[in-house]
Specification:
Length: 237
């Protein structure tokens, strides 16, 4: 059974919360007892309890539709920004490249990636590995609650870029292309921004194209897109 839920404020898999709405008898869901309106009411209660302002819930079993309800304007045809859950897509892309033999957890491709873009690599990044980027242990600037874009979204940085600026340009313009040398865990959007660039260097494709061809395409996902530009304040969206 596939159960999926989305929220604009935070992307949440709601299966555990909605389990009481799906009575299972001998492994079969008794749909007759639960009409669409009842799912809608149950979803509204969960959304209120957890402070979710935009949620979509869909349930299927064996290809059969069970429920498809939304709140706050959410629906299957309205894309929702999934925020940091995009990091799981990046991690899957890395895993695929490891399977292809183009990457390893010990790979340190930042030097090649910087050279391809004609920018010198800061010595502090020379030995940073894919594993350290994946696990937020690369010594990159951590996120802060009051600045969810990791201190990069500011007027001087944006003024230094044009509408065609890449994530790489954004990182360099911000002066955040260096590591403090620490290997302690520190959650950082920068780690996954760098991983997106590593994926491009290893695959020879853009991050978006690689994800469409190797992840979304095989799964039959046709509506996923790489979102807004860095100039609109979204790093790696």
């Amino acid at each position: 059974m596939r159960v999926t839920g989305f929220s604009r404020r935070s992307f949440i898999v709601l299966a555990c919360f909605l389990a009481p709405l799906l009575p299972v008898i001998g492994g079969a869901v008794d749909v007759a007892k639960f009409q669409q309106a009842e799912f809608q009411n149950g979803l509204a209660e969960i959304a209120a309890k957890h402070g979710l302002n935009r949620v979509w819930f869909r349930a299927e079993k064996n290809g059969q539709f069970l429920a498809n309800v939304g709140l706050g304007g959410a629906n299957p045809d309205a894309p929702i920004h999934v925020a940091s859950l995009a990091k799981s897509i990046t991690a899957i892309a890395v895993a695929l490249l490891i399977q292809d033999g183009k990457l390893s957890l010990e790979s340190d491709l930042l030097g090649r990636m910087f050279a391809q873009r004609g920018h010198p690599l800061d010595p502090s990044l020379r030995d940073i590995t894919v594993e350290q980027l994946l696990s937020h242990t690369a010594g990159l600037r951590p996120n802060r609650a009051f600045d969810p874009i990791n201190g990069l979204r500011n007027r001087p940085v944006l003024d230094a870029l044009n509408e065609d600026a890449s994530v790489f340009d954004f990182i360099v313009a911000s002066g955040e292309d260096h590591s403090n040398g620490s290997r302690r865990y520190a959650y950082s959007n920068l780690s996954y921004a760098f991983l997106g660039l590593v994926i491009e260097a290893a695959s020879g494709e853009s991050y978006g194209d690689f994800c469409r061809q190797r992840i979304f395409g095989p799964l039959g996902i046709r509506s996923a897109t790489q979102g807004c530009s860095v100039l609109n304040g979204h790093l790696g969206c």
